[in-house]
Amino acid sequence: MNTIIKKIAFCITCMNRLHHLQQTLEKNIQDNYLPKEVEFVLLDYNSHDGLGEWVYNNMKKYIDKGILVYCKTTEPPHYLRSHSRNMAFRLANADILCNLDADNFLGKGFASFMLEEFSKHDNIFYTNNYSLNDTYGRVCVRTGDFISVRGYNEALKGYGYEDNDFQNRLIRHGLKPVSFHNPEFYRYVLHADEDRISEEYRLKNLHKMYITYINPYTSGILLSYKDYTTELCTLVDNSQINIFPENSNNDTLFPDAERRVVLQEEILNGTWSEDNDAMSFQENDRTFYRVDDHELKAKLIVLITSAINYHEACKQIKEQSVINPDGFGKGSVFKNFDLSKEIILS
Fold first, then answer.
1. Strand, helix or coil at 201?
2. Region 75-79 average pLDDT
3. % residues pLDDT > 90 (the chain)
4. Which of 90, 136, 192, 240 is least enclosed, having the fewest CB within 10 Å?
5. How much is the pLDDT for 132?
6. CA 281 from centroid of its chain's CA atoms
7. Which residues contact 193 (CB under 8 A, 6 or more apart)?
8. How far apart are CA 59 and CA 17, in angstroms?
9. Domain encompassing residue 248
């Protein structure tokens, strides 16, 4: 670990998205080049696309100058958003921690702006203004507050709502959310939904996907996986239901539910076999049709995982569960290509 504590660390997690980092990383460092105050922590989350080689050949000068820290773990088989962010935050050595997605451009002077804001205000955390989903993950928080709320919620496995959950817990911890508004801070690399989840379990292991129509705001989606397991999810678009007040079923504990796609009920798990893998099939008088379009598959999985994570977060609030009861951000890494010294995060 670094012995000198920086003022702010930008924490980047990356699994096989070198093509994004090649566009953003050096630009972000150059636009916020304050080696005595700033560090960029890049967690290579078991990438196999040449990320480490590219960093060594092109970015080592920034490692030598102490503004870039490169850490590599070889443990995860697929991308876990909350766990990877917790690891990167724990590997940082700074007073303020900021999640930075690999496809985001910070903008010139973002670090200086954050340092000034945190020097003037106590009990705050910073986010975007919720206008662009592609920068929604940009959350800046003091290290002590990150530790106090026990990091990102690792019970939320897939894409979506892990940021909302983290921010909601920071608010319940007594912090005020503040947003940055400079358009310079909102630039990002445009990409498809498939890029967002290409390394996550459901898409990586998907065998086939089927969908069925239930009513104008409810659909059933059946996922079959390469390990011969299945999941049946029923999704409800509450933003459509609440156009009609008589159909509304709001829970005052979770007022944002009316704007979300949510699970109608618990996911049904099952199995499939080669002998029963038809193009479409009947269940309860409804026909399921196979989804073959890759873009649509990715969009539906984003909806599913966001709904699952929202469901889990609400359940934890109702049950007053301890977040990450067994710890968070655990794992082992090697830092700055030094294979002789393994860092264990326990």
1. helix
2. 95
3. 82
4. 192
5. 66
6. 34
7. 295, 298, 299, 302
8. 16
9. 195-319
Q: Tell me the angle at which helices 162-172 and 294-319 cross, rounded to the nearest 10 degrees.
A: 30
pLDDT band (50, 70, 90) for residue 192: confident
Could you tell me if 200 and 167 lie in one domain?
Answer: no
Name, in order, each residue with C-beta under 8 angstroms of 30's C-beta and a sequence gap of 6 or more. Answer: none
Does residue 1 belong to any structural domain of this protein? no
Beta-bridged to residue 126, according to DSSP, are 140, 178
The Cα-based distances of 56 to 60, 120, 333 in angstroms read 5, 38, 16
The 10 Å Cβ neighbour count of residue 47 is: 21
Q: Is 296 helix (H, G, I), strand (E, B) or coil?
A: helix
Residue 230 contacts by C-beta under 8 Å, 6 or more apart in sequence?
222, 223, 224, 269, 270, 271, 272
**CB-CB neighbours of 338 under 10 Å:** 9
Q: How many domains does the chain have?
A: 2
Residues 139, 144, 147, 153, Cα dihedral to 10°: -20
- Say if residue 346 is exposed, middle or buried (CB neighbours under 10 Å; 0-12, 13-18, 19+): exposed
Residue 317 sits at φ, ψ, to 5 deg, of -65, -45
Cα gap 125→141, rounded to integer Å: 5
pLDDT interval class at 241 (50, 70, 90): confident
Alpha helices per DSSP H over 44-161: 51-58, 60-64, 81-91, 110-120, 143-148
Assess whether 127 and 246 both reside in one domain. Answer: no
Q: Which amino acid is residue 52, in one-letter code?
A: G
Amino acid at 156: L
Contact 248, 242 (CB under 8 A): yes
CATH number, position 116? 3.90.550.10
- Of the ranges 88-102, 118-132, 289-303, which one carries the lowest mean pLDDT score? 118-132
Q: What's the average model confidence in pLDDT over 128-156?
A: 91
Burial readout 249-285 (b: 16 or more C-beta within 10 A, e: otherwise) = eeeeebeebeebbbbeeeeeeeeeeeeeeeeeeeeee
Report d(CA 180, CA 96) in Å as an integer: 16
